[in-house]
């Protein structure tokens, strides 16, 4: 998982206002704004918001990819270091900025699931061949939607995905969200499950509300098939466990206080069975691959989840405060910097002019924004209401 935290201290990502995305601007200005953010990341100054979203239609997105393809240095950096998603259904481009807490929790959770699978393989001999074929995989997933003559690609980079070697899609996808972007999990679940025609059978959302309280919760989405009046099989995504981390007064009455939270506001784990991460061995691949595999439970209980999260929080705090033993300072002799590719005069001139043009348009066209990023559609609606 490529994380921009490699080029800037994670603490600087969390604190401070986010870099404002352009909202209701001309397409060329929006693309130039995203390119400018990419260059800021390349120079070690990424936006401080955990997620920044832009309204970008399919043709604009293709133009953005075209720009990156023709700028080898920037395009290579973005492909290697930057995490972003694109949803043509919502016309939404989202830049994702992982933190130490986010990535450490993910890493520990992956290790814990692997250990659970290994213990199960040692105990259940019949399931050993199938379990040995399961691996955690990282990278980008692309889903094709639309007709053959008007195909579009949904692009997502999951936080965690487990895939069997004989399956085309990962059976299990896990996304770690924060309080400001938990609503995006619903759209992600639809894209993952429907985009893969059920190849991705279950999507787990782990919501860490660490800024407001210490509450943390689990959401689960699965594929639900039914037959319509024409006898056709239809698939939709069903939310099995609802993530409600609101106050008791606004909590959905159909759920008790412990049915979705795995950690309460005081930081204590909850004992309800639904507070655990519950999977089945058959969740890790489609039925064609799992035929004959015993339907065994894979459980990471709430106590373990809380332990992993607390450890990640401690590492996050240590990283930001630089706690621990440090070596004595000495006079540092830096190696002279030699760029991998010298820019020609025309390249430099073009970059300088583009930056000037973007700044002028930004000052003229930018609209107010909030921490979550505002889309052009929302901004234009607000303007019309005024």
Automatic annotation (TrEMBL):
Compositionally biased spans, kind Basic and acidic residues: 347-370
Domain of life: Eukaryota
Region feature (Disordered): 1-24, 319-386
Descriptive protein name: Uncharacterized protein
């Amino acid at each position: 998982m490529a994380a921009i935290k490699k080029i800037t201290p994670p603490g600087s990502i969390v604190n401070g206002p986010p870099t404002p995305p352009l909202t209701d601007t001309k397409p060329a200005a929006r693309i130039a704004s995203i390119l400018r953010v990419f260059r800021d990341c390349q120079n070690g100054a990424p936006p401080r918001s955990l997620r920044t979203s832009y309204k970008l239609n399919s043709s604009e997105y293709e133009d953005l990819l075209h720009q990156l393809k023709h700028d080898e240095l920037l395009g290579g950096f973005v492909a290697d270091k930057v995490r972003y998603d694109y949803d043509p259904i919502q016309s939404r481009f989202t830049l994702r900025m992982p933190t130490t807490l986010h990535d450490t929790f993910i890493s520990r959770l992956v290790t814990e699931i692997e250990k659970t699978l290994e213990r199960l393989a040692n105990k259940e001999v019949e399931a050993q061949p199938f379990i040995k074929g399961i691996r955690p995989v990282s990278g980008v997933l692309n889903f094709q939607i639309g007709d053959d003559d008007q195909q579009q690609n949904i692009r997502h980079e999951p936080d965690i995905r487990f895939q069997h070697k004989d399956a085309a899609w990962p059976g299990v996808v896990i996304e770690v969200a924060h309080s400001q972007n938990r609503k995006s999990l619903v759209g992600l679940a639809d894209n993952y499950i429907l985009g893969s025609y059920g190849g991705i059978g279950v999507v787990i959302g782990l919501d860490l509300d660490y800024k407001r309280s210490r509450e943390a919760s689990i959401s689960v989405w699965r594929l639900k098939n039914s037959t319509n009046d024409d006898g056709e099989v239809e698939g939709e995504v069903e939310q099995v466990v609802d993530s409600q981390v609101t106050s008791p007064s606004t909590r959905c009455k159909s759920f008790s206080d412990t049915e979705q939270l795995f950690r309460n506001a005081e930081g204590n784990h909850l004992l309800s069975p639904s507070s655990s991460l519950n999977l089945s061995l058959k969740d890790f691949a489609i039925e064609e691959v799992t035929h004959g595999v015993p339907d065994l439970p894979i459980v990471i209980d709430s106590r373990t989840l809380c332990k992993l999260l607390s450890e990640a929080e401690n590492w996050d705090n240590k990283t930001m405060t630089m706690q621990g033993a440090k070596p004595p300072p000495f006079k540092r002799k830096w190696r002279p910097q030699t760029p991998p590719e010298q820019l020609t005069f025309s390249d430099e001139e073009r970059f300088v002019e583009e930056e000037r043009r973007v700044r002028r348009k930004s000052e003229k066209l930018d609209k107010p924004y909030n921490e979550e990023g505002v889309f052009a559609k929302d901004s234009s609606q607000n303007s019309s209401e005024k």
